[in-house]
C-alpha cells in the first residue's frame, strides 16, 4: 500500500519509522515532514493545516491510507474530507476530535458519563468568571475552550493571575475564537500518567502506559512546554490500577462517544492525575502524545500498519499488538530559549555517531538538512530515545547518546527517567 503521514514532528518521525518497516507499505509519504523523516519517507511540502492541499496530494498520489498525526487537522475535519473523497484515513472525524478541540465538550462528556475529573464551570463573561474564581479560590486553572497551540492553559497561583488570564482570553481575545469561551476548574495535585488506546469505534486495544515531563527545567521547574521527555511504561501505575483506568476512562470514553452519536476511531489519549482522592482525568487528546509516541513505538515488537488499518474498517477486535518487556526513555533536545524565543538555523553535529549507540533511536522533531548539514528549525528539535531492561538502563543509553551530540545552542533536562 501507499501511506501518507500528516505532520512534521517527532511523533510523525516515530510513526514513519515504524510504517517504513512494514512489509505492507510499498511507498511512504509525509507532509510536510522534517530532516529526519526524509531519511525514511518522501517529504512533500504541504502543511498539516492545508486540508485542501492534503486531500489533493492523497488523490494525485493515489494514497491508500492517510495517518494524521497532529490535532489541528483532525479538529479541522481532515478525516471527514478524506473519507468524502473515498480515501481511508486513520484518526477521528471532526465531531469525534472535539474531545480535544473543545475542553468544554470534553468536560461535559465526563460529567454526563461519570468519568472522574476536576470540578469546573464554563464562562463567556469575564465578570462572572472572576466571581467564580474568587469563590473557588487559588490555586485554580483557567483554560481556553479551543486549541491554542498549547498556550491556552494557565495554572493561577493567585486571584490576580487568574483574573489576568480571564481578561487575556475573554476581553483581549488573545487566542481568538479558541478563547471566546473558557472554563475554570480546581487545581489538582498528584503525579500524572498518560494512557492510550486504539479504537475502531466499537473495539478498543489498550497501548502501554507512559508519562511525560512538561516543565522546561530539571525537577519540574520552569515554564510549561510541549514536552521535554517521556518514559514508557510509567512506574507510577500498578497493573491493577492501569487495567482499572483502561476500563473506566478509555473504554468509558469510547462508549460515551458512541452514545453521543460521535463514534471515535483512531488513537485516544487520556491524561490522568493520581490525586489523594483517586485518579481524575485532566484532558483527552485525539492523537498520540508527543514525545510519548516515541517512547511507545520504540517498544513495539510487531508491524503497526495492520492495527491502524483495522481502526479504519471496524476490525480491531481481531488485532493484537506485541510489546517488548523493555523500558523506553525519550529525552528531548530543544533550542535554547524554548518555549520562549529561540534561534533557528544552528548546526547540529554528532547525530550519526549518537545514533550508533546501542539501543538508541533518534527521532527528529524540528530539523532540516542544508547541503547535508543538519540544522535546527524548531523549538523541540530531537528526541533521543533509549531502550533497556529497566528505566535506569534506558535512561543511561539515552543520555550517553545525548553526550555525543555537539549542539551548543541546544539543551535538555537531565532528569528524564529518574525515580519520582
Report the uncertain regions. Answer: none
Using DSSP, what is the number of strands? 23
Cα radius of gyration in angstroms: 21 Å
Mean of residue pLDDT values: 96
- The secondary structure category is alpha+beta
Oligomer: single chain
How big a fraction of the residues is strand? 25-35%
**Tally of discrete structural domains:** 4
- Helix fraction, binned, reads 25-40%
Q: In the CATH hierarchy, what is the class of the largest domain? A: Alpha Beta
Shape: globular
Main beta sheet strand tally, sense and closure: 6 strands, antiparallel
What is the terminal separation in angstroms? 44 Å
Q: If you had to describe this structure to a student in words, what would you say it looks like?
A:
This protein is 31% helix and 27% strand. It contains 13 helices and 23 strands. It is an alpha+beta fold and 420 residues long.
Amino acid at each position: 500500500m501507499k501511506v501518507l503521514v500528516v505532520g512534521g514532528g517527532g511523533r510523525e518521525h516515530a510513526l514513519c519509522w515504524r510504517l517504513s518497516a512494514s512489509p505492507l507499505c510499498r511507498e511512504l509519504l509525509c507532509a510536510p515532514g522534517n530532516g529526519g523523516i526524509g531519511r525514511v519517507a518522501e517529504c512533500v511540502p504541504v502543511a498539516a493545516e492545508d486540508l485542501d492541499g492534503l486531500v489533493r496530494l492523497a488523490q494525485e498520489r493515489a494514497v491508500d491510507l492517510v495517518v494524521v498525526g497532529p490535532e489541528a487537522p483532525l479538529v479541522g475535519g481532515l478525516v471527514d474530507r478524506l473519507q468524502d473523497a473515498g480515501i481511508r484515513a486513520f484518526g477521528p472525524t471532526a465531531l469525534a476530535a472535539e474531545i480535544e478541540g473543545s475542553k468544554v465538550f470534553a468536560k461535559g462528556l465526563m460529567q454526563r458519563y461519570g468519568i472522574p475529573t476536576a470540578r469546573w464551570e464554563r464562562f463567556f463573561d469575564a465578570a462572572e468568571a472572576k466571581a467564580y474564581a474568587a469563590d473557588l479560590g487559588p490555586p485554580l486553572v483557567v483554560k481556553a475552550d479551543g486549541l491554542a497551540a498549547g498556550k491556552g492553559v494557565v495554572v493561577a497561583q493567585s486571584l490576580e493571575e487568574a483574573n489576568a488570564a480571564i481578561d487575556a482570553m475573554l476581553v483581549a481575545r488573545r487566542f481568538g475564537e479558541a478563547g471566546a469561551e473558557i472554563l475554570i476548574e480546581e487545581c489538582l495535585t498528584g503525579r500524572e500518567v498518560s494512557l492510550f488506546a486504539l479504537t475502531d469505534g466499537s473495539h478498543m486495544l489498550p497501548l502501554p502506559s507512559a508519562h511525560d515531563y512538561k516543565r522546561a527545567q530539571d525537577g519540574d521547574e520552569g515554564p510549561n512546554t510541549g514536552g521535554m521527555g517521556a518514559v514508557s511504561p510509567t512506574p507510577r501505575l500498578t497493573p491493577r490500577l492501569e487495567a482499572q483506568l483502561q476500563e473506566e476512562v478509555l473504554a468509558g470514553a469510547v462508549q460515551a462517544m458512541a452514545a453521543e452519536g460521535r463514534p471515535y476511531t483512531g488513537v485516544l489519549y487520556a491524561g490522568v492525575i493520581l490525586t489523594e482522592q483517586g485518579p481524575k482525568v485532566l484532558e483527552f487528546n485525539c492523537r498520540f502524545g508527543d514525545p510519548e509516541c516515541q517512547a511507545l513505538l520504540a517498544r513495539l515488537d510487531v508491524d503497526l500498519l495492520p492495527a491502524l488499518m483495522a481502526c479504519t474498517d471496524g476490525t480491531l477486535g481481531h488485532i493484537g499488538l506485541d510489546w517488548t518487556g523493555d523500558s523506553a526513555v525519550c529525552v528531548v533536545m530543544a533550542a535554547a530559549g524554548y518555549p520562549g524565543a529561540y534561534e533557528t538555523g544552528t548546526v547540529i553535529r554528532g547525530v550519526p555517531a549518537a545514533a550508533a549507540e546501542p539501543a538508541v533511536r533518534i527521532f527528529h522533531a524540528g530539523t532540516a538538512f542544508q547541503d547535508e548539514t543538519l540544522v535546527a528549525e524548531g523549538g523541540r528539535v530531537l528526541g533521543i530515545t533509549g531502550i533497556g531492561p529497566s528505566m535506569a538502563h534506558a535512561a543511561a543509553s539515552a543520555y550517553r547518546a545525548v553526550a555525543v551530540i555537539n549542539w551548543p545552542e541546544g539543551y535538555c533536562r537531565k532528569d528524564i527517567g529518574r525515580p519520582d
